[in-house]
Fold this sequence. Notes:
Layout: E1 7-10, H1 19-23, H2 35-43, E2 53-55, E3 58-61, E4 67-71, E5 73-76, H3 87-95, E6 103-106, E7 119-120, H4 126-139, E8 144-147, H5 155-160, E9 164-174, H6 181-185, H7 190-204, E10 208-213, H8 219-236, H9 244-254, E11 258-265, E12 268-277, E13 281-289, H10 296-312, E14 316-318, E15 332-342, H11 345-370
Parallel strand pairs: 6-8, 13-14
Antiparallel strand pairs: 1-3, 2-5, 3-4, 4-7, 5-6, 8-15, 9-14, 9-15, 10-11, 11-12, 12-13
Helix pairs in contact: 2-9, 7-10, 8-9
Amino acid sequence: MNDGSFTARVLGAVGxxxxxxxxxxxxxxNPFVSHAFLSALERSGSVGGxxxxxxxxxxxxxxxxxxxxxxxxxxxxxxxGEYVFDHAWADAWHxxxxxxxxxxxxxxxxTPATGPRVLTQDPELAVPLLRAAETLCRDNGLSSAHATxxxxxxxxxxxxxxxxxxxxxxxxxxxxxxxSFDDFLGVLSSRKRKDLRKERAxxxxxVEIRALIGTEIREEHWDAFWEFYQDxxxxxxxxxxxxxxxFSLLGEAMADRMLMVLAFSAGEAVAGALNFIGRDALxxxxxxxxxxxxxxxxxxxxxxxxxxxxxxxxxRVEAGAQGGHKLARGYEPVRTVSAHYIVHDGLRAAIADYLxxxxxxxxxxxxxxxxxTPFRKAEAPAPGPVDR
Length: 388
């Protein structure tokens, strides 16, 4: 695409651009849109090949200059690893004689964490960049483009572009200036406070828990974590999304932005959780165990994450997709947003109607969940936080 003032081009990989050029388009606050993270997925074979995630980043260049805007985009021939489910849309379109795949996915693969999807330091280029994605779809027979887990500040960009908006609910922990985990416990109801203390005590019995950052994370730890991850991936998805090499590459490139929490028994790692550290958030991503120990999952994934966020001075913990069990552990319901461009007018109208009904249901769920947080009534936050 070329309108005389800028040119949009499609690359074969994020790794086709120098890291400095790609990272200059971001503010550096989100680890998942960094060149290090996205190129590690490419180099490790976690995307590309037969994964169904074909890298297709869209980059805008100024005439005679380098990139000034980009979309982390992928050609998809399925809807796996997205966490915003559109299988019903695909089925309906196929029944109507259409072809839903391939489609364009503007996202971080396998990562249900909020973040920027339009990468640019020039806000005037944001909507034109989305127009380039629309043109790519129309000119190449793609049914649609989907941007998932959009950070709140960028939702208006997609609204201005006229994309359909969809909402869902995640559970995030909010740091309201807590000095310690006990300080956080102090705002919970008495019964919930006792429950959490009992869970932590049970989880920590007969194991040693270590939180590792940076050079503390060694290849032996990645070997152990890979075993945990494979077990969880096989049970949840049928096969793990990331390859073993991905963890080593991520460890080499961005270990200082990763927090690995491991549980040891008799000197051997038996369970672990992996988090990524952003400027203002801790992102819980992967977990696994080779033992079945009550409450160990909650300890490694949720309570240790709260401890770390307080220690690191972070504003929140994003604990990933789904999981109503997080509610009782101080994680609050937060609405997340995705945006969708549908090429065919008829399909677009049908999906718009569907989303209007779905939003009403999400709003009802939000109200129900807000009434079941574990906070003391006098300490309860304002209802209905919207991550927009």
